[in-house]
Amino acid sequence: MRVAIAGAGAVGRSIAGELLENGHEVLLIDKAPTAISVERVPQAEWLLADACEITSLDEAALQRCNVVIAATGDDKVNLVVSLLAKTEYGVPRVVARVNNPKNEWLFNESWGVDVAVSTPRLMSALVEEAVSVGDLVRLLRFSHGDANLVELTLPEESALAGTQVGDVAWPQDTSLVTIIRGTRVLTPTGEDSLEAGDELLFVAAQAREEQLEDLLSVRKES
Question: Which residues does the UniProt record annotate as the domain RCK N-terminal (predicted)?
């Protein structure tokens, strides 16, 4: 998979390193000469250019990219890069970094953003996830379809503990994608049983989140 990353700062380089370790082809783009540190990520391609300029993106051959990541420290730049990547080059997947939580509402399909990642929101969500049992925690927002990646740790008293996944009447527009049980990561099937303490990851429409939380947190009859 070919990935272009706009912004070669600490965030962009860190993402590039992870992707390269997983066997992907990575191009880092930055307009600041001081940001071009080839020795830090030598396996990546580097381009000294303004990612907000069409000529720069032509040089980067953005149309060959499967994913574009707008990872600069400037929300305006990230929005422009996202919009150009989606509308001018038809990039299938655009991920954008949100620096200021007040701007999060802009990072949506209208600006070409498929996934918006807000570091402050993600950090607070991870704190909530670490201390909350029985409460739905929103981890990530997907722009298309108004869907979110949400997590809930199944409480001991949940009526669904011991129930097979296929026997649960899940709300519409929700999908259980992963069960984390101790050190194991399970891809759920209809025959898998839910256990108290399971971390359940769902992709769910925002309008269904409350219904999903109510379903998972309902107490067993005494």
Answer: 1-117
